[in-house]
Amino acid sequence: MFKDINKNKKQNVKVLLIGRIATNIADSLFYITILWYFKTTFHSPMILSLVFIVDSAIDMCAFIFGPLIDRIYIKNLLKYVTIGQTILSVFATILFYLTKWKQLALILLLLTYVLSTIGSTLIYPAEEKILPVIVSKDELTKVNSLFQLAYRILDLFLDALATLIVTFFSLSKAMIISAFIFAIALCFYAKLYLPKNLIVYEKDNDYFTGKYLHDLLKGWQVLKNEGQILLLIIPLAVTNLFYGIASVGMPYFTSQYLTKSAISYGGLELFSSIGGLLGSLIISKIGILNKIGILKQKLERIVVICLGLAGISVILETMIANSIPMLILVFVLSSAFWISIMNINFEVLIQESFNPHILGRIETINSSIINCMIPIGSFLGGIIVQRVSASFAISLQGIAEVITAVFYLLVFNNKKNNYCRIKQQLFFFYSYFCRDLHPFCIKIISNISVALLVY
């Protein structure tokens, strides 16, 4: 059986990648079409906000679907969900013609969108669950980077392509195209070779209790017991809070320092996508080193360095904005570059740390924890931009990333035994020689210093 898997490994990766690309394209087209229908039919920002609320709510509640992903044979899950999304696209097309019952169409389309988004929430973690089974550990980083590279390339033009399709075709035709692309994804998912006894749980498995709620709690317990991973996820969620703050400030920031037109913000998004693309490309090349164990040994250090450099890049965006505004684009690219490298390696760390039988729950819990902070950050960002400045909002993201990198450095370090003693001594040292500084600043300087010394 394992010989068969090795034999079909490359084919499996190609089939899964093409299926996921098709799903991404269909998802984007479905989303843009629904959004455009609400905009042109109802002319209400409140209705559009419902779509964004649905997205955020489902992201935050993704952990609820974890046991379902782990319980069902993953190939069947991919097929059934994609069939459902195809049917929902066709159903949405029919709803577009209910011009005399707009309120009914609104309710049914929102329900259709909710169901399709839940389907995507089930499909996306399935990739992370499948890859560790069909790919050897030595190639896991390279394959993950290949998938991210494909997604980054799609990001460069996918929304624009979807918008063009919606603009030049009718909404109903655009939705039919979405259904057709979902059907293409289904054809590829059906070709996956995934032996059931490698994916499906067994009744005596330690990760299943036979009850859905207990299985859900089991996922939390396993993640909690893996203390190092949990210590990584929580600070990353806090960092995402500041990402949400910065995302609100960015349009105002670009209007202030680049140009007042939408082109400046679009250019910034383009450079960010290019940075992520380059990061994925670099990792796909460096992934070869994994065969001799080099990358795996340096995995933890890479996460620390990448997050730290990303934070420094964000801080530099605001520092040079007045003097050399065009460098903002360079530092945006740099930040996205380092974050892309960190995310890929972080994903590999998750995949290698947990059994595939519980990986669906771990991935969805991880997603819920990390994404729950973004809406809160966006709310706070509006207040901060209005009362302070956009530059300050963006600086907070950079500072948060640097502090999180220092925290990660301490977590990963094997020489932490004397950490408390050294930190206390350094605090007294800085308190004596830097009396004019605020105690909070002294504490931060002490933490950074001890981190560098211990490392």
UniProtKB/TrEMBL annotation:
GO cellular component assignments: plasma membrane
**Gene3D superfamilies recorded for this chain?**
MFS general substrate transporter like domains
Which Pfam families does this UniProt record tie to the protein? MFS_1 (PF07690)
Native organism: Lactobacillus kitasatonis DSM 16761 = JCM 1039
> What's the protein called, per UniProt?
Macrolide efflux protein
A molecular-function term among this protein's GO annotations? transmembrane transporter activity
Quote the InterPro entries the UniProt record gives.
MFS, MFS_trans_sf
Q: Which residues cross the membrane?
A: 21-38, 44-65, 77-98, 104-125, 146-169, 175-194, 229-250, 270-290, 302-320, 326-344, 365-385, 391-411
Name the source's superkingdom.
Bacteria
Give the membrane topology, semicolon-separated if more than one: Multi-pass membrane protein
Task: Name where it's found.
Answer: Cell membrane
Q: Which UniProt keywords apply?
A: Cell membrane, Membrane, Transmembrane, Transmembrane helix
Organism lineage:
Bacteria, Bacillati, Bacillota, Bacilli, Lactobacillales
Major place of localization?
A: membrane
